[in-house]
């Protein structure tokens, strides 16, 4: 444990030089897993937020590096090793059977165990937000995505059909397939809103933490708006694509405008979250003040 105590006053590069075998082992685990995430998750719409989350999480840790160095107190070595061995077993299982969610989750658990051994639990508690925030890097398993996406697709399809039918358009629906005039449109997974919900939640949490370091109650309150905002934004997106198909043909809706609509939808939803935060700013100040009074008491 005395060797671990030497972390204090050292740089990250010095730690790597002091523990070369540990550094090489980490690189042997982290690099292949990052490559797997980049090719299997980050290259898809479902994981497009991953690189941003990883970069900003590491930045949040880096900006507090002086505090980490100053307050580092080694944790229990045997407890850290036990968690590390368990994480290694889970990682090997996920890697062998190509379960990316398991592999990435186990990698983060292993990194957390190593960090605990070097800096202790008190400092990890202070870094609770970057640690939890990095969980958004873990890709959701396919069975979970399918279970959530299908009900969202049905909900979006029902709303789009009802709104356009109320407006007088000749539209009908069977499941998640929409029929308008001579055209048939399938509401795909991207239009369900799950990707927007995940991305907006991650960015919203980062926004709240960085700008306000607001109370947990306010953070939860603002996040309650994420799901309805994301769903409504995707309903508007689908309505726009249906109307483009109706007036200009299927080719127009499936080309450049389809991808552009996705970008506009996400940006609009994000701006809506910012607007909600602005409207709720008096409540945020009240909750923050109430939290400080509670701390003083």
From TrEMBL:
Transmembrane intervals: 46-62, 74-93, 99-120, 127-144, 159-180, 192-212, 218-248, 260-280
Molecular-function GO terms, alphabetical: peptidase activity
GO cellular component, one term: plasma membrane
Subcellular localization, as worded in the UniProt entry: Cell membrane
Residues annotated as signal peptide: none
One GO BP: proteolysis
Record keywords: Cell membrane, Hydrolase, Membrane, Protease, Transmembrane, Transmembrane helix
Principal location listed in the UniProt entry: membrane
Transmembrane helix among keywords: yes
Membrane association type: Multi-pass membrane protein
NCBIfam families: 8TM_EpsH (TIGR02602), exo_archaeo (TIGR04178), exosort_XrtV (NF035943)
Identification of the protein by name: Exosortase V
Native organism: Sandaracinobacteroides saxicola
């Amino acid at each position: 444990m005395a060797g671990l105590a030497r972390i204090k006053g050292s740089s990250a590069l010095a730690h790597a030089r002091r523990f070369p075998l540990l550094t090489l082992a980490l690189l042997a685990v982290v690099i292949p897993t990052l490559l797997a995430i980049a090719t299997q998750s980050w290259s898809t719409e479902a994981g497009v937020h991953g690189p941003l989350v990883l970069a900003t999480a590491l930045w949040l840790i880096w900006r507090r590096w002086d505090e980490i160095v100053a307050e580092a107190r080694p944790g229990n070595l045997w407890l850290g090793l036990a968690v590390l061995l368990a994480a290694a077993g889970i990682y090997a299982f996920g890697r062998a059977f190509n379960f990316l969610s398991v592999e990435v989750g186990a990698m983060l658990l292993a990194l957390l165990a190593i960090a605990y051994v070097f800096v202790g639990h008190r400092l990890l508690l202070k870094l609770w937000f970057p640690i939890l925030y990095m969980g958004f890097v873990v890709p959701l398993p396919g069975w979970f995505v399918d279970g959530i996406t299908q009900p969202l697709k049905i909900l979006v399809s029902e709303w789009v059909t009802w709104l356009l039918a109320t407006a007088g358009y000749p539209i009908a629906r069977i499941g998640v397939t929409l029929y308008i005039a001579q055209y048939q449109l399938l509401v795909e997974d991207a239009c369900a809103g799950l990707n927007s919900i995940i991305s907006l939640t991650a960015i919203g949490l980062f926004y709240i933490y960085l700008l306000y370091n607001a109370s947990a109650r306010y953070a939860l309150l603002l996040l309650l708006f994420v799901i309805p905002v994301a769903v409504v934004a995707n309903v508007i997106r689908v309505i726009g694509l249906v109307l483009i198909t109706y007036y200009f043909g299927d080719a127009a809706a499936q080309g450049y405008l389809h991808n552009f609509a996705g970008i506009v939808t996400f940006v609009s939803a994000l701006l809506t979250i910012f607007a909600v935060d602005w409207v709720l700013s008096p409540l945020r100040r009240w909750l923050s003040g109430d939290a400080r009074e509670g701390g003083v008491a």
